[in-house]
Amino acid sequence: MRNYFISQFQVFLENIDCYAFVCAMLVVEL
Fold first, then answer.
1. CA atoms of 20 and 13, how far apart (whole Å)
2. What is the rounded CA–CA span in Å between residue 21 and residue 29?
3. Which top-level group of life is the source organism from (predicted)?
4. What is the C-alpha to C-alpha distance for residues 1 and 8, in angstroms, rounded to an integer?
5. Distance between CA 18 and CA 23 in Å, rounded?
């Protein structure tokens, strides 16, 4: 179970740039 969370966290880190970009776009819209 722990390995599952670790793998999910690694995927999150790999996609952090995409999330940051989306958040930045949302902030600009506000």
1. 11
2. 12
3. Bacteria
4. 11
5. 9
pLDDT at 14: 85
CA atoms of 16 and 3, how far apart (whole Å): 20
DSSP helix/strand/coil, 9? helix
The whole-number average pLDDT for the span 4-26 is 86
pLDDT at 4: 92
Tokens 């790999």, residue located: 14
Instruction: Say whether pLDDT at 1 is over 80.
Output: no
